[in-house]
UniProtKB/TrEMBL annotation:
Protein name as it appears in the record: UDP-glucuronate decarboxylase
Cofactor: NAD(+)
Coiled coil stretches, renumbered: none
Any matching Pfam family: GDP_Man_Dehyd
Cellular compartment(s): Cytoplasm
EC top class named in words: lyase
Species of origin: Populus trichocarpa (Western balsam poplar)
Amino acid sequence: DHQTTVKPVKPPPSPSPLRNSKFSKSNMRILVTGGAGFIGSHLVDKLMENEKNEVIVADNYFTGSKDNLRKWIGQPRFELIRHDVTEPLLVEVDQIYHLACPASPIFYKYNPVKTIKTNVIGTLNMLGLAKRVGARILLTSTSEVYGDPLVHPQPESYWGNVNPIGVRSCYDEGKRVAETLMFDYHRQHGIEIRIARIFNTYGPRMNIDDGRVVSNFIAQALRGEPLTVQKPGTQTRSFCYVSDMVDGLIRLMEGENTGPINIGNPGEFTMTELAETVKELINPGVEINMVENTPDDPRQRKPDITKAKALLGWEPKVKLRDGLPLMEEDFRLRLGVSKKK
Ligand code: NAD
Ligand code: UDP
Ligand code: UDP
């Protein structure tokens, strides 16, 4: 019969047929995994500002919340799917921002096997999706791939000092495998990839009981509880405000470099200095207590952002002292603690 004479037509590979057919080139359908989380929801806000973008969020709500996206729910250009990235996902998109993964140590250590699955199977699924539809995919990797770094500050060329069998390994080794998968799909299947190595990020919408240091100190200061500095207090981190982070991620996605590229704020502080700054800005009456630390805590961390400056024309704009009050305002509203006149 006539059907057997029809030759199967192989779908064109990258770029996605969506970019050529019913949408004009400038229209983009963008998937954000983990889009109900802290960084993801701010990224969605920025992407939705461009009226040519359609945004699909896939999130299992482990550490994220629909509340972070409430202003977009019901908007025709926006779609929210309850989905776990360890399961296959079938959607037609042009770009994938792959953020899904718990980021705070208390949450990623809660079910370490699930954290590994999210990083490995989750990233594999998103790469399979990118391959099928010809989408460009960006992975939010982490400065934790440098482990307890022996090189300071950390350039992208540093291979890191990571414990493969420790309690943080589900996260840092998981992200290292995710980076490997990204490059293998790129080399083997020609997938367009982007890798951001994100350094500690803070801002409004962080979970109040998230366990990370900036959210802990601000919540403690507002509740009038002692700030808990984990020993020795001389360990350092470099904190990037979330609007700067989102700007860096979008520039990386839109640019021509695969990365990995460090995105973070080089301003470096000891945890004791951070506690003193929060105390001074938010509640001068509060105490600072030294408490026990957790295993494998990196002693120092600061991004070398030479590549981000040169290749993306990006550098952070918001200083810690300017970002903390913006986060304080959000935490006051959520905790119901008003500012004393
Ligand atoms: P977050 O915990 O607020 O957001 C993660 C989101 O992913 C949440 O909405 C969560 O529900 C979702 N999620 C987790 N597992 C999932 C799964 N299996 N399937 C679907 N959704 C899942 O964390 P964040 O701070 O917004 O971090 C976002 C990304 O940035 C993560 O990939 C994290 O590793 C990376 N990162 C963050 C920081 C930081 O300082 N915030 C630093 C380095 C890297
Ligand atoms: N995958 C997916 N959505 C797609 C295409 C693939 O979630 O649109 C998943 C698929 O289930 C598989 C993974 O991505 O587990 C890797 O896909 P790939 O095609 O690279 O490998 P294969 O399916 O051949 O093992
Ligand atoms: N930390 C602290 N008090 C807290 C929580 C964390 O002093 O209440 C320290 C922790 O020991 C680490 C740093 O703050 O040295 C950053 O920890 P966080 O969990 O925020 O992020 P990490 O960079 O370790 O992923």
